[in-house]
Amino acid sequence: MTRQNYLRNLFRPSLTTLFFRYYLSALVALVLIITGVGIVIDKLYGGIDEENGRNFMRGTVTLIEAELQRHPAGEWDAALQQLGKSFSYKLQLNSLDALTLPDDATRQEIAAGTLHVDPDEMMIYHRVPGSGKVLVLGPLEVSSDKDAILSEENHVQILWWILTGIGFGIIVYLGLRPLWHDLVSVRITAENLAGGDLSARAAPSRSWLFSPLAHGLNSMADHVERQMATQQALAHAVAHELRTPIARLRFGLTMMDEADNEEERHAYRQGMERDMEELDELVNASLRYARLNRGDVVLHLEHTPLTDWFTELVDQVRPLAPPNLALKLRIAPGEGLFDKGLIWVATRNLIVNAFRYAASEVTVTVTLSGGLLTLTVDDDGPGIPEQDRVAVFEPFMRLDSSRDRATGGYGLGLSFVRLIAEHHGGTASIDTSPAGGARFVVALPGQDKYGSLSQTVTL
Q: Can you give the pTM of this predicted structure?
């Protein structure tokens, strides 16, 4: 393994590298914060500590000086040496000029008789009253070598930093572990989806941070899988639907070549033209369905008076009704918010579909309540079995055995109804009609007007 490959593997994304990267970064930040806070506290409270030390040592200094005053000035060194045997730190008498002090201000302070505390060197200075001598106490540290690496104070600091680092590392590891598992799960799912496995889904997230990402990825996968399934079904269905008119065209061409006279050739030519029109209509319908299914159609929402609009729609559809079939309209007053072009297509498809199966009556009901616009189409036909109520909304699905375009259509009408409802954020469903047949229900939410059923019109 080359050095470059070794380094690449060493820094390859993993839980270990993620842990050390964030652990070391966070630990350095923690050390800097603690150090900075310590410096600030030392600056803020350093004067208070010096004053506390001065007050603490004032009694000791006073007692030592009182003992010296009991002796002549020439015996002070000997007396101080004798007293020093009872202390753990040095006692000295020096002249003010012989002292090594940081600045002249400190020297003047000592000369004025002020008890001076040097917190850095841990020294106490005080001029003996009535003399030019300065009593020096310290260093006050008990440790024999404060700079030793293995001193007791450094032992405590090292142990404190080790325990802090271990504890902090455990916290960071426990925090990163679920994040890493969620990230790996999302990555594996994305790779599986990219490899063509559209059934792959990310496992439920353990952390709140990646939960929206996993949910969004799964939602996207569901949508893509549905889209691919729909496109495949549409492609297969279109290919299947194309076979019949193409076969008739091929048969017509053969028969035209074998026709005995111009009249026969004209008849075959007319049949081929009808087949061409059917092919054109099928392709156009498939393209419209695909555009709507992809969401390429932009909604143009308009506030529409329900009574006038649906009455006009029913009037235009009424001529398509079979003889002796009654069409009733029950409609709520007020305004609905929807795309008039798309809802026109959906409503027309539902009514025409009901015409094919109704025995004597089709009822269209429009209600508006609680911000929900509901369009219901009932017929008194044979109804739709419960196990087939989902399948009828699939493209090119025809439950009747007829293949005649005059009755069976292409099987796209109800598929358009479902897509139009979903495009409005609503739903399309099937139930049993009170008249005994099928009931188709389209529910459109997001209405900003409210009303109730108040009138019935029979056309």
A: 0.47
